[in-house]
Amino acid sequence: MSKGLDQPQLAKIRLHPIKALDPVEVREARIGPSGGLEHDRAWALYTLDGRWVNGKRTAAIHLIRAAYAPDLSTVTLSVPGDRRKIRAAAIPFPGGTDSAAEWFSVYFEERILVRYSACGFPDDTLASGPTIVSTASLQAVCDLFPGMSLENARSRFRTTLEINNIPAFWEDQLFGPDENYAVRFRIGEVNFEGSNPCARCPVPPRDPQTGEINTEFTRKFTNMRRSSIPAWTPEARFDHYYRLSTNTRVASRESGKQLRLGDALVLA
């Protein structure tokens, strides 16, 4: 850690209750049965032939807004400015999958299935714990693209835990030089193992509100990452540099433990 910086602290917890849709910020979250955060990526959308409906495949999903009740008991789905005037709908969460499927089917004009899992639908099934990024890393992305706000960068990369009081890419310390080397650390009362730098997909180049693609995003971001790898980063883990944030594993014995804003991150 650089001299003069305070202890790393948990600055934001962002759940994405419906995979590919808007997040909700919470002050505390509980570890779920598979090591992810409870209610994170709890719903996922599928076509009838079993394909994901997400930002990687379906740009139209970026136009949907999802707003949650404070206790996450309902989600209100809407499409502001939609010419078809699709009605907003308040749907029970997480039990209202059938009602949600009807709403999404109308919007996408094809039959959509909504599935629920208490374990969530993580992108990395081998490292299904929360993803971790530093505020400074997100700011480094913003600095590449004039006018990009931190909130916009957060929505592009969709990480669950954000840490402050650390320099950009400090989270690279949370994975080892090879896949067999586990970096152990703790946030509050929860024990983690760092796994790998998270490979990014086609979603970050798209504006999270409109789906508009920045054709220079991937090239500029990759060049920035390549040229600014810190000395503490195990660079051997980068087969390419289109990576940001750290994937983690959380043991089943941690299930039910709470993470809270302000919790300190402590390396084991």
Can you tell me about this structure?
This protein has 268 residues and is α+β, with helices and mostly antiparallel strands. It contains four helices and 15 strands. Strands 2-1-10-9 form a four-stranded mixed beta sheet. The protein has a four-stranded antiparallel beta sheet with strand order 13-12-11-15, with no helix packed on it. The radius of gyration is 18 Å and the shape is globular.
From the structure above, extract its key features.
268 residues, alpha+beta, 4-stranded mixed β-sheet, 4-stranded antiparallel β-sheet, 15 strands, 15% helix, globular
**Main sheet, how many strands, which sense, barrel?**
4 strands, mixed
**Contiguous uncertain segments of 5+ residues:** none
Structural class: alpha+beta
Distance between the termini: 14 Å
Envelope shape = globular
Percent helix: 10-25%
Radius of gyration: 18 Å
Q: What share of the residues does DSSP label as strand, in percent?
A: 25-35%
Give me the strand/helix succession.
EEEEEEEHEEHHEEEHEEE
Tally of separate helices: 4
Biggest sheet: strand arrangement: 2-1-10-9
Query: What's the rounded overall pLDDT mean?
Result: 95
How many strand units?
15
